[in-house]
Specification:
This protein is mainly α. 63% of the residues lie in helices and 0% in strands.
């Protein structure tokens, strides 16, 4: 970047030849039909200028004479910050603080910009390619909006059905090419012939590509949805609830076996490594508890509840109630560590009652808006 460009603080991403050099053809390719007139020219110009400014700032930070910390970052070193910023966004949504949400979305956008810049510097793609890829994907996956009228979707359920069919076809074509990702390749394929046979698409392969760093609840929910595509699922939540009870009973049985084994060890003086079951019970107990948790996630999925969000809220509520317990005990001149279990149980119930007595407007609920009727109808990007 020239000194003049650095002074102005603006330069065109298209003119920058430091990165992927994907050519003008992909940049010129628009977002398809039916987009003109939906956003005012003034707002589009403002967004373009603001995003371009962020692009410039990242380029300066990563460029010669830029920030030593930013220049040292890699995709791998930044991955933790991407996750942290995403959770900060979720927390801002939960509390309903719009100014905070704006700030946290900016922090998340910065992470996207940094990753795109690093990829550009290594000749892979740039921020423009990222925006083009997601624009093309949204058009491919919404033929009922941007298509020629052949595909119709009048309900959210029909949208999801079309989406999944298109996604299957894209994955099948990507597999034929030996490319596991259909994005950032400029093909623009996917919407034609949605009725193509599904045998080319392997759900097991997609299950194997679920990111290992995802929260376990999200992995479980995702793999359950994939299995459900071919009908390997319960007809309704009553079957899932029965499965939860079944898994819970298996855990109870193993716990009884474990207690008996521990009693024999205590009575006979057997060392842990010499125990009759060889430690097998612990391994089986871990499996059964895992199955129980998996079934609970499935129950949440059937009822349209985000299991990760539900668990995070449960953790938050526990922390808030426990803190209130400590305050109540302190008012009595006591510490929780000095109290018996019955007294602590009373404080716990009092803390729960205090929470119920608070007006809804004063509680930290799951979001800043009412849940919409279609919130349970989700699309896997």
């Amino acid at each position: 970047m020239s000194d003049e460009e650095r002074k102005v603080g603006r330069f065109s991403p298209v003119a920058d030849d430091q990165g992927a050099g994907t050519g003008d053809e992909r940049r010129r390719r628009g977002c398809g039909k039916g987009l003109a007139g939906f956003v005012s020219d003034d707002r589009k110009a403002r967004v373009k200028e603001a995003v371009g400014r962020l692009y410039d700032i990242i380029a300066i930070l990563r460029g010669d004479g830029g920030c030593p910390w930013d220049r040292a970052q890699t995709h791998q070193s930044l991955d933790r910050y991407l996750l942290e910023e995403a959770w900060e966004v979720i927390d801002a949504i939960r509390t309903g603080e719009m100014n905070k949400l704006c700030e946290e979305l900016g922090d998340l956008l910065l992470q996207i910009g940094l990753h795109a810049r690093i990829a550009q510097e290594h000749g892979y793609f740039d921020l423009g390619d990222v925006a083009l890829a997601i624009s093309e994907k949204m058009i491919r996956r919404h033929p009922h909006v941007f298509g020629n009228g052949e595909f119709v979707a009048r309900t959210p359920e029909e949208v999801v059905s079309n989406w999944e069919l298109i996604k299957m076809r894209e994955a099948a074509k990507a597999a034929k090419r030996g490319d596991l990702s259909e994005e950032c390749d400029g093909t623009g394929e996917g919407t034609e012939d949605l009725g193509e046979t599904r045998e080319e698409y392997r759900l097991g392969e997609e299950m194997g590509r679920i990111p290992a760093h995802w929260p376990a609840t999200l992995q479980a929910e995702r793999i359950q949805k994939l299995a459900g595509r071919v009908g390997f699922d319960w007809p309704d939540s009553s079957g899932v609830l029965d499965k939860v009870r079944e898994e819970l009973e298996e855990v109870r049985v193993l716990l009884k076996l474990k207690r008996r084994s521990e009693k024999r060890i205590s009575e006979n003086g057997t060392r842990h490594e010499e125990r009759p079951d060889g430690g097998e019970i612990e391994g089986r107990l871990e499996e059964e508890i895992g199955d129980l948790l998996f079934s609970v996630v499935n129950l949440a999925r059937f009822e349209g509840i985000n299991p990760e969000k539900a668990l995070r809220n449960a953790v938050r509520r526990f922390g808030e109630r426990f803190g209130l317990m400590e305050k109540m005990a302190a008012k009595q001149g006591l510490r929780l560590s000095e109290m018996g279990s019955e007294d602590m149980d009373k404080l716990w119930e009092a803390a729960k009652s205090h929470e119920k007595d608070r007006p809804l407007s004063g509680r930290k609920t799951g979001g800043y808006r009412p849940k919409s009727a279609n919130e349970g109808t989700e699309i896997e990007r």
